[in-house]
Specification:
mainly beta, 4-stranded antiparallel sheet, 60 strands, 1 helix, 1% helix, 5-stranded mixed sheet
Length: 705
Amino acid sequence: MKHDWPEIGICSVPCIVGDRVYYVSNRCELICADTEGFHDKENDGPLKDENLRDKNNADFIWRLDMLKELGVVPLYASASAPMAVGNLLFVVTGNGPDADESRVPSPKAPSFIAVDRLTGKVVWQDNSPGKNILAGQWSSPAWGMVKGAAQVVFPGGDGWLYAFEPATGKLIWKFNGRQQTKDSESDTNDDENTFVATPVFHDNKVFVTMGRDPESCSGAGRLWAIDATQTGDVTRTARIWCLEGKDFECSASTVAVRDGLLYAVESEGFLNCLDAATGKRLWRYDLKATAWASPLIADGRVYVGNQDGDIHVFKHGNQAELVATNIMNETVCSTTIAANRVLYIVGQKHLYAIAEPQRGAANWPMFRGNPQLTGVAKTTLPKKLQLRWKFEAPAEVESSAAIIDGMVYIGCHDGFLYALNLATGTVKWKYEATESIRSSPCVVGNNVFFGDSGGVFHAVKIRDGSGKWTFQTDGEIISSTNYMEGKLLFGSYDGYLYCVAAGDGKLIWKTETEGRIHGTPGIAGDKVLVAGCDEDLHVFRLNDGANIGTVNMGSFSGASAAIRGSRVYVGTFNNEVISVDWENKQIAWNYKHPERDFPFYASAAVTDKLVIIGGRDKIVHALDADTGKARWTFTTKDKIDASPVIVGQRVFVGSMDGILYGLDLTSGKEVWRFEAGSPFFASPAVGEGTLIVGTEDGILYCFGN
């Protein structure tokens, strides 16, 4: 292709929201595809003309050809990573000059666009750089909150930053990054530096480096700290500090900021640690090779790679302390990424995933096993379950266990959180809360989080069971905890959904509903979904808690929101199970048993084909996930308030008849049972090859080999 650099392929980092993936192709197209491809045997979306449709091919939903439809002419490559905020995608189109960089062939074509991510239609566009684009526009946009109002920043190919209102495209401020300063060594017209890195919002400021395309990035560069609270042309007024010239060389890397420290990489191979408030350099480390990657801060460490293939690991802090140098034996240009306790490194030839070794199979770190609350285990269980041990707690166990790294964490009505050895069931430590514990614990990193009936939310160190911090609400906390990107989310009977920082328990935001919150909030991408006692399913934005939609369920619900793609499944006290299309804010289907008319209190377990839920009608219901039609039912001897768990081809669920049932997932036929003699209110937890569940009489059972 004329506008594609040979053999570099797709440079855009994909953005995933629910079951949709968005990226910019090497043909200057903005693409929306189904994450399941044709594995689901469905051709989704309005785009139906895919040439290849077997299960290993992509199912494209829509395609925006920016070259043909918008007149964009990219130089070498279109590299922007689409950024999704709500239903909008923000994309730098890549419009640029011709190959010899003598002129811009299409100066009126947009350089920055906002697109409806559901339809692919352009909502607004901006071509501010016009004919002044210096080279290719290979950066990506940034979004942030400034004094409570949202901004989206476009790093222009003319060396200006442009901040817009995300919904309207109205310009808020602009800043000339190529301006002359008292430290400048050249006139701005001779300065070839522009933006390749992505800007970063932090504390009402924007931080960004300047440089050129990586292959020619050498010599003097710039690192700006800009006041994002001003309006208009803020070139002369918004500078907070700037490193340039001999103090900071050319850079194509995005900065990382945490705890008042800013890390920035110079392309010639230096990692800087600066005071974010003042720009004072605290230390500078020679990486011994060219570095295009951006620094990553994770778990108290700073990671950065270089072109020699060395991944340098530093202790996060105001003194240079190299912890390790890992030799990958191939060039590393990309940024190290951390997700779900795994480090991902893209080398020139390989993708590496690095994690601490686990003692068993997959963990179960929280209620329902994952942030989407699907109740589906990743581990396997033996065909014939055997009782391994039982722990006799002093009071009822209604909390569901967390199983992680050879330990079991469980709350009890006696007001204690217990840490048990998974192999033996012996107590390692116990932590005293203020009142009884019905909330299920959530383990993140080195801490376990839960709420109690006194309205106190606790953070406890898993090392020794000592308290780290607490957070007080005005109602009892039965809702369990969810976690994403340093944020802990839980509901309270005071009617608020809370988001607090995992590190220190400080309130990030809270948002009020019109009723108590009993269930656990589910997370889908950058959205939080809560089924409340006010009869509404609420959709909140993860970043700031803004309510972006509600769907009336017809009755209140005490269940947690089980999420699969764009669908939420929840039982109600109107004796229904409903499926909500949360993206389109409408009921997809509802189910009622034709004869038994009882409420559903338990949460559902969901796969891509089935929804499994127990009711107070004493029945386990298996429903078609797409249509809500009953596939099978299984009748127990008493009500079912405990939520089921799916493990491979089996379903495990406890009933108030005191029996824990194992059912065949396809037919509903009973394949195993355990008679405890005491009602089950707690939901089973399944991790590391074991199933753990508690009863009303305070016995915690562990099953496995």
